[in-house]
Structure formats: structure tokens, C-alpha cells
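Lab notebook, page 48
Experiment: co-folding of the full assembly
Goal: obtain a model of how the components sit together before planning crosslinking
Operator: M.T.
Materials (sequences as entered):
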Amino acid sequence: MIKFPIYLDHNATTPCDPRVVDAMIPYFTDNFGNAASRNHPFGWAAEEAVDYAREQVAKLIGADPKEIIFTSGATEADNLAIKGVYDMYASKGNHIITVTTEHKAVLDTCKHIEKSGGEVTYLTVAPDGLINLQELEAAIKPTTILIAIMYANNEVGVIQPVKEISAIARKHGILFFSDATQAVGKIPVDVNKDGLDLAAFSAHKMYGPKGVGALYVRRKNPRVKVTSQMDGGGHERGMRSGTLNVPGIVGFGKACELCMQDMESDNARISKLRDKLENALSKLEESYVNGSKEHRLPQVSNISFKYVEGEGLMMGFNKDIAVSSGSACTSASLEPSYVLKALGLGDDLAHSSLRFGLGRFTTEEQIDYTIAQVSKTVTHLREMSPLWEMFKEGMDMDKIEWAHH
Amino acid sequence: MAYSDKVIDHYSNPKNVGTLDKSKKNVGTGLVGAPECGDVMRLQIEVDDATGLIKDAKFKTFGCGSAIASSSLATEWLKGKSVDEALAIDNMDIVEELNLPPVKIHCSVLAEDAIKAAINDYRTKNNMEAIKFETSAVH
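Observation: model returned without errors.
Model output:
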């Protein structure tokens, strides 16, 4: 029996693992204390649970528990890292280097920095989604204080050369922050081997609850500090005020422990299913896999089906199968995916893309069903696509004067 | 966003998908939109020389479900109408019939534009002056 609806949007969010939920439950009711209450058993129990979770989280990325700052999620962690470094190291400089394919939480934070007088360089990427290390090094100025480059991309799954980036950052005495939201829990991330000074990640992308995330802040070689962005009780070593989300943090810790324990076997199974899906759908005429296939997360595949529009395509099966598209029609902005455009895709191919994000609970039956449904819908829509007809007639569509609106 | 039943019906069972012979004098073709914008509609009408009525209408659309439904509905409405009656089809009629949400109004505008473009193509082919339409406000 196939389980419906099929969820293939794991880069957006993941379901909570039932083992995570079990671990969290007691912290809503019996152990509801405030971890900052230092003088009674309710507070002690909460603090102990948070300490334990902090160890579980730290262990997953090879960090010291003292280097973990709990936040409300990766967006907050991105903001805290970039704004926090910008404020803390203002005397050293005001220049930040980032990449055009970053998540909005990083890009919009950088825009904010620019408005407040900072300078930001946005590196472009090659068609495979990877940055050019020479360009990165060439962009460094005496005023550069931070390199902010994501670990793995949320739309195409492309993994940046993190070790090489950190080597360049070290050489120039610049801090390196990585938004590792899509990577932590999915692939091995080690803050020391990778040379990360700061890293943001989130529980709900790795089978933990929504509303909790973390910022890793290096304490040694070098000791990194960030200026807090919220005023209050001085929690989290003064870097992030606010009562700790104890049940969420407990769930986050458990999720990290499970990812560490199951990562290898999960990835072996999931990447096989991903490859099966991708190989089958790539056989459809005029379909293109987006981003590097070599440097990529094992759980995701982003494919453009030329001459059909992404939202129209999803409509063919979205009662049964949940995926996402880079088509403008699926976003509020009316612009197709800026990530795919940064990879050099034309608007037409960006509009025609689907992202398949597999996960821990994806089954082979679900993948077989997805292959059949997507193939069927692509064929159905091409039969009614004027562009497909023109393509089949050998017409050069670039020569048509389209009425742009 | 949930789709209306009518949009789903036109999407699943589109009416009048196909191609008319555009070399024929009594066939008018309208091609509107652009691949970059995520919508391209091609709408064709075939006019009966004797009666002046639209005897056939076909479409092909690259776009979202609402764009497909708007063009499918337009071809249904066109059949049996005179060219002048066809000119009276307003995009808001399509919006109403399909219960299109505000973000999808541009799909109905595109369908109206496609009708007008097909009619003008028919008119110029038959030595009539093309009608100048106001540029649509919503796109």
C-alpha cells in the first residue's frame, strides 16, 4: 500500500520523527520549567534537558556545547550571524562577501547591512551552481570582515567547496559563516574539519520541530563574538535573549542524535531512490537536471521539463504528490526562481522546474508512482503546449517576438 | 491556493485543444504571452464564410492551470458566436465563470488578448482594418 499524499518537499520542511515527539512531550507538561529559573527543581530539570540537547546538537557538527546558541530557527541564526558580526567587528571593516544563490534570510540581511552603510559583494555562480574560488579571493578587501556562503543550496542541493572557502578566509584573517540549514543532519558537517567560524541550522529540516534552530559560534582559534540583536535577559551567553523553547530544544537534540545515528544508512537508501527518480524523469525528452550532480545533497533533484510550466505541471498531481517549483506562479513575487536564474537558466526553463526533495520516510513505491504521474502529466501538458508544437516543428523560438508583459 | 472545480475540470478535460490550418484565409490566429513570463496562449478561430459565425475554435497553452482553463473556456464561448459578438467577451466574465483568485486575473486578460489577436489576424487576412485595442491594464 502506498501512503498518500506523497511528500517530496523535504527541503521545505520535514515531518517530526515520532521518536523526536516522544522525547518532547514531557517537557510540555510535567517538566515545563523555565531553564533560567535557577532556584527550584522545575528550572533545574529544564536546564538539564537543555544542556543535554546542547550536547546532542554540538556532537552532530563536531562542536563544543558552549558554542551552540539556540534560536527560533535558521532565519534568526542567519540574521544574528551577519548583523552580529557586522556590529561586533565594525572597527575592523564593513565589507561582507556572499553569493547570489543564498537563501533570502542571508540575502535580505545583507541588503539590510547595505542600507545601514555596509558594503556587500555578491559572487555569481557557474552553471553547475558552484562559486569560483579565485573570484572569492579576488573579492577580498582590507575592509572585509565576513564571508557568508551557504553549505548546500535549498533549491538545487549544490554543495559549495566549504573547506577551500574556509582556507581562503583563514589565510586573510576573515570570519567564515555558513548557512548550513540544508546540510546539517543530511551530510557530515564538522565545524573543525570544515573550518566554519559560524554556522546556522534548523531543527525542522532534520525531522525535528519547527520554531527552533541554532547558531554555532566558534570559541577558539579564533574566538568569535556576535553582538546580540535582541535585548532582554541575556540568555545564551548574552548573544540571544529570550526564554528557551525547552520542548523544541529537546526535540532538536533528539533529531540531531537520530540524524547522526541514521545518516549513513538513510543516505544510502534515499540517494538510490533519488537516482531512480532522476534517471527515469531525465529520459523524458527535453528534461534537464539543474545544478552539479557531483557536488550535491543525496536527497534532492531539481529538474526542468522544457515547454511545460511548473505550476501547471504540479496541478496534474498535487492532490497526491507534494513537490515545489521554481515557477513564478508558485511564489508571491511573480518572478521565477532567482537561484535557477543565477545558474544561467533562462526564465522559460526556470518556470518549467520542479524540485523533488526525498526524505527518511520516502518509499520506493512512492517514487515509482511519482515517476509515472509526472511523466504522464508532462506528456499531457506538452500535447496542449504551443511551445512544444513549435519545437517539434523545428521553429526557433528565440526569433519570435514575444509580447512581453 | 486551492483551485475551483471549474478550473480543475478544464485542466483535466480541456476543451478544443488543437491546431487549425493557419494558412487558411478564414482562420485567425492569436499568439500572446511569452515563455519568459510563464504563459503563452495560442487561440485560433475558424469563421464560416457564409454565415460569418465562428464555426470552430482551438487553443494550445503553456502556463498554469488557470491559464489553461481560461483559454479552454474561451474556445467554448467563441464557438457559434459572430466575430462582433466574440469581441464582447470580457476577461472579467472569465474570472467570474472560473472563480479565479486575484493573482490569476492576468490569465483571463491573456485569454481576452488572445481572442482579440485572433480576430485581428482574421480581419487583416480578409482585408479589414485591424481594430486598435487599448493596452490592457492588468498583466
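Interpretation: The two ends of chain A are 47 Å apart (CA to CA).
Next step: discuss with group before ordering constructs.
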